Amino acid sequence: MFVVLTKRNLKEETATKVPIIVLAGASWNKDCRKMRGILEEIEEEYKGRRNQKVKFATLNVDQERKIAESWGIVHGFKLRIPALIFIKDGMMVERIYKSMTKDDLLMKMAQFVSPGDERTDTAYSSEFKLTNLGI
C-alpha cells in the first residue's frame, strides 16, 4: 500500500531507516499512471521479502505544490513528471524525472535498497537533506 505524502505527514513518514521511493506526479498524466502501475507490481513483489525492505509513497504535485517546488519537480508552470524521488535515512539521495521500464527501475532499486540495510550510509550526499529543501 502506498503512503500518500502531504505537508502534514511528510516529516513523520520520511523519518525512517527504511528506504523510500516516492512517485511524484498527477493522476491526469499518462506517464504517471504508467509508473504507478509499475511501482504497484514491484511493491507486490517486495511484500514477502524480509531482508529487502522498501517503502513506496506518492506525492500529488497538484495538491502538494510547495513540496513539489522545493523538490525541483515544479518550475513555474513547468512540471517535471513523473518524478521518482529516492529517500534514504531521511535524505533525498536521487531524483529521476522520467518514466522508466520495470527492469530499469529494478536495476536502480538494486543500487538503492540493500538487503538488510539498516545502516546510515555516509556515501550519500547531504546536499539533498529534506530539511534543506524547505520541508
Number of helices: 4
Query: How many domain units?
Result: 1
Distance between the termini: 24 Å
Number of strands: 7
CATH-defined topology = Glutaredoxin
The average pLDDT is: 84
Task: Give the amount of beta strand, in percent.
Answer: 15-25%
Shape: globular
Q: What is the assembly state of the chains in this entry?
A: single chain
Largest sheet: spatial strand order: 1-3-2-6-7
What composes the largest sheet? 5 strands, mixed
CATH architecture: 3-Layer(aba) Sandwich
Radius of gyration, rounded? 14 Å
- Top-tier CATH class: Alpha Beta
Fourth-tier CATH superfamily name: Glutaredoxin
Order of helices and strands: EHEHEHEEEEH
Weakly predicted, low-confidence segments: 117-129
